[in-house]
Amino acid sequence: MKLHDLKPAPGSHRERKRIGRGIGSGKGKTGGKGMMGQKARSGPKPSPAFEGGQMRITRKMPKLRGFKNRWRVEYQIINIGQLNNVPDGTELTIEEMVEQGWIHPAKPVKILGDGELERKLTIHAHKFSASARARIEAAGGAAIETPWIVERRSRSRGPNPPRHRQKAEATREA
Asked: Strand 122-125 to strand 91-92: parallel, antiparallel, or no bridges (unpaired)?
């Protein structure tokens, strides 16, 4: 193969359209823009939502008012009345609740005080309601709060831990 043998791949190079070069070209006179009208003129065109002065469908559609907090933490709920089938004196961790299929590991857990607890249990969870904590301690158990740490990700899709955590890890390593 020599330099003079090189040519582009078939279909990759197209001739440009020569608009307004006479009737014989097929794109003469109006240059493929039809006859007159706003869309045939130069300059900005009407927006894609414009419906010729008729009320736009985007304006007719109902709007969802208000605000949706994208950082809201949604807890999975377990009532203490559901924990009566756990053996007495057990230490119930979050991992055990996941194994039992009571909760999903992706969301935090909150223990609520609905029902009566007849067993002495040590329960680990991310949050406890005041009534749940009181009833667990009244039964002789303990309510241990585990922090829920959400790893925020950067917009560039990589891990993005907070700066103070990076400094703390750097001082530990040194």
From this structure: parallel
Q: Mind spelling out the 3-state secondary structure of the chain?
A: CCHHHCCCCCCCCCCCCCCCCCHHHCCCCCCCCCCCCHHHCCCCCCCCCCCCCCCCHHHHCCCCCCCCCCCCCCCEEEEHHHHHHCCCCCEECHHHHHHHCCCCCCCCEEEECCCCCCCCCEEEECEECHHHHHHHHHCCCEEEECCCCCCCECCCCCECCCHHHHHHHHHHHC
Residue 164 lies in a domain: yes
**Number of domains, the chain:** 1
Note the pTM of the prediction, 2 decimals. 0.54
Identify the domain containing residue 129 by its residue range. Answer: 73-174
CATH assignment of the domain containing 163? 3.100.10.10
Contact between 110 and 143 under an 8 Å Cβ cutoff? The reply is no
Q: Which residues, at least 6 apart from 22, have a Cβ–Cβ distance to it below 8 Å? A: 28
For the stretch 125-139, pLDDT in tens is 999 999 999 999 999
Q: Residue 166 pLDDT > 70, yes or no?
A: no
What residues form DSSP beta bridges with 124? 144
